[in-house]
Design a protein that fits this description.
296 residues; alpha/beta; TIM Barrel; eight-stranded parallel β-sheet; two-stranded antiparallel sheet; 10 strands; globular
Length: 296
């Protein structure tokens, strides 16, 4: 990737940056088949043009960060579906290339975030919403190492360590980045005032507070009502920029964006249940420093 851009960490020091929305939601809206254990990664493998089209739809809606389709791409999971190691490596690289091509299709600056989903995502049994897989930190690091190395080599601007359900997995991920000079954000999935595995959020966010590789921390794939308490817990233990991209089951832009920004959120977008219309509303609100239309 040779496209010149301001480092994302630098942009976050000065303004709110808008993330995209649910990639799977947009692929489904485009008529793609997401059935089976590979979810959106199935489309990455079978019809990559659709993935690029989904990224482009978000970029044109105003997204400034495109998250790649690599969330569920793991070597072990793809081996179970008949993909050899070389093919899986190619798919991880392709996920970055497709997002980069979409970024080039718009006039505004767009960063590419390589999705590193949790171990549970590759099991396709929703265990990413429970955590505590019965694996040690060392075993989790061994699982994540090859996919992180491939995504870094592919040239993404930042790694999205996202939908992390517990501090064990966060520790494993952060250990792999230590001393690499890579840039990443760390985003937990939460329920109430705890991680999905039940740890206090202050403990969870403190794990990343001293990691220079981490440029932002926050939450995703959670209820919008859980965002503000999580951001406040993060702000109590770190001065890093915060991020939020929750689910939106109602399909309406009813998030208290201004309150999130006051709490320190600088990366804001959507996860499951969101699409380009929500991205456009968030982009418009961010550009004027106000809530999205219709928010209380």
């Amino acid at each position: 990737m040779t496209r010149a851009r301001t480092p994302l960490a630098e942009a976050l020091r000065h303004r709110t940056v808008v993330l995209d929305g649910g990639l799977g939601d947009q692929l489904a809206a485009q008529g793609c088949d997401l059935s089976g254990g590979l979810w959106s990664a199935r489309v990455l493998a079978e019809d990559p043009a659709q993935v690029q089209a989904a990224h482009t739809a978000y970029a044109r809606a105003g997204a400034e960060v495109l998250i790649t389709a690599s969330y569920q791409v793991g070597y072990e999971a793809f081996a179970r579906h008949g993909y050899d190691r070389a093919r899986t490596t190619a798919l991880l690289r392709d996920s970055v290339t497709l997002a980069d091509r979409a970024a080039r299709a718009v006039a505004h600056e767009v960063w590419v975030a390589a999705s590193v989903g949790p171990y549970g995502a590759t099991l396709a049994d929703r265990s990413e919403y429970r955590g505590r897989y019965g694996l040690s930190v060392r075993e989790l690091a061994a699982f994540h190492r090859p996919r992180i190395e491939t995504l870094l080599e592919a040239g993404a601007d930042v790694l999205a360590l996202e939908t992390v359900p517990d501090t064990d997995e966060a520790e494993a991920l952060l250990s792999l980045l230590a001393g690499t000079g890579a840039r990443a954000w760390l985003s937990y999935t939460v329920a109430g005032d705890r991680t999905r595995a039940g740890q206090p959020l202050a403990e969870a966010f403190a794990a990343a507070a001293a990691a220079p590789e981490v440029i932002a921390v926050g939450v995703n794939c959670c209820a919008a009502a859980d965002v503000l308490p999580a951001l406040e817990a993060a702000a109590a233990v770190t001065a890093k920029p915060l991020l939020a991209y929750p689910n939106d089951s109602s399909g309406t832009a009813d998030w208290p964006l201004a309150a999130w920004r006051r709490a320190g959120a600088r990366l804001i977008g959507g996860c499951c249940g969101t699409g380009p219309p929500q991205t456009a509303a968030l982009a418009a609100a961010a550009s004027r420093g106000a809530r999205p239309p219709g928010t209380p």
